Amino acid sequence: MNVNAAALPVVAVVGPTGSGKSELALQLAERFDGEAINADSMQFYRGMNIGTAKLPLEQRRGIPHHLMDFLTVREDTTVATFQDLARAAIADVRSRGKLPILVGGSGLYVRAALDVLEFPGTDPAVRSALEAELERTGLAMLAARLATVDPISAARISDAKRVVRALEVHELTGRPFSSFMPEREYFSPAVQIGLNGDRAELHQRLASRVHGMVAEGLLNEVQALIPQGLREGRTAHKALGYQQFLQVLDGDSSVAAASEETIVATRQFARRQLTWFRADPRVQWLDWAQTDLGTAAAQLVVRTIQG
């Protein structure tokens, strides 16, 4: 492309799991000489391949993929750390005249990479105390406390990890966590392309995907990760499919039951992803089933480049 590398936008391919983001990112990379930057937080982990639908190397069509496989299942990262890593990767891709293509459905990670966003610090002691309280009293008690100090965040979030984080931020800074999520403003030129489509079709896609993962050997993958620290890590063992199939290995569930629980949980996750991305008016939506999807997405990229 005959364009100043510094002016190349970040192209973010977003939407629910199972909507075809990885394939569209590959098509755009081929059209625009781009490189992919992963924004799926579960694909950070080495060895978590089948259950995260990570594209195998041989299916990446020679296109570099950044920010995959840089953590062990014992390790954890923060959104702030990801922000630094993602922006370094974006700068690196641009420095070589390539188009950076951010791809993934982890909404906060996408926003961290794209937007002017400040992340408050963390304190292990405060975090541990809140996690201990969560274990002792349950999520409802912490959620109720969050509602008193930060009703905006309380209305937006429901999972335990983020409730703990919001309370930690309030305790450390005296400010509500919601105050760190300002107006939507891109850090540098960007375009977000969202994929969506028929809900019934998505449900069928997700069911087929989970059954395919099981057939590929998800249970064996989970078992192989246990000696590497899957149970000890703070985040990895909670990933969709992994927590359900750990129960199979523990004798507390069957493959059939774990598969069905994973399908239900994945559908719920997809719904939350859609809610997140629909709240951003800058996302330009395309139907994943349209025959000219690659061309339509390419036109959005060209329009952004041309201003």
UniProtKB/TrEMBL annotation:
This protein's record includes keyword Lyase = no
Q: Which UniProt keywords apply?
A: ATP-binding, Magnesium, Nucleotide-binding, Transferase, tRNA processing
Keyword tRNA processing on entry: yes
Where ATP binds, per the record, is at: G15, P16, T17, G18, S19, G20, K21, S22
Any single GO BP term: tRNA modification
Query: Where does the sequence pass through the membrane?
Result: none
Q: Which InterPro entries match?
A: Dimethylallyltransferase, IPT, P-loop_NTPase
GO molecular function annotations of the record: ATP binding; tRNA dimethylallyltransferase activity
Q: Which cofactor does it need?
A: Mg(2+)
Tell me which EC number(s) this protein carries.
Answer: 2.5.1.75
Which residues participate in substrate binding? T17, G18, S19, G20, K21, S22
Q: Which reaction does it catalyse?
A: adenosine(37) in tRNA + dimethylallyl diphosphate = N(6)-dimethylallyladenosine(37) in tRNA + diphosphate
Q: Gene3D superfamilies under this entry? A: 1.10.20.140, P-loop containing nucleotide triphosphate hydrolases
* Chain segments carrying region Interaction with substrate tRNA: 40-43
What top-level branch of life does the organism fall under?
Bacteria
Annotated site residues (Interaction with substrate tRNA) in this chain: S106, R127
Which family does the record assign? Belongs to the IPP transferase family.
Write down the NCBIfam families for this protein, in alphabetical order: miaA
Reported function = Catalyzes the transfer of a dimethylallyl group onto the adenine at position 37 in tRNAs that read codons beginning with uridine, leading to the formation of N6-(dimethylallyl)adenosine (i(6)A).
Q: What's the protein here called?
A: tRNA dimethylallyltransferase
Organism of provenance: Arthrobacter glacialis
Q: Which gene encodes it?
A: miaA
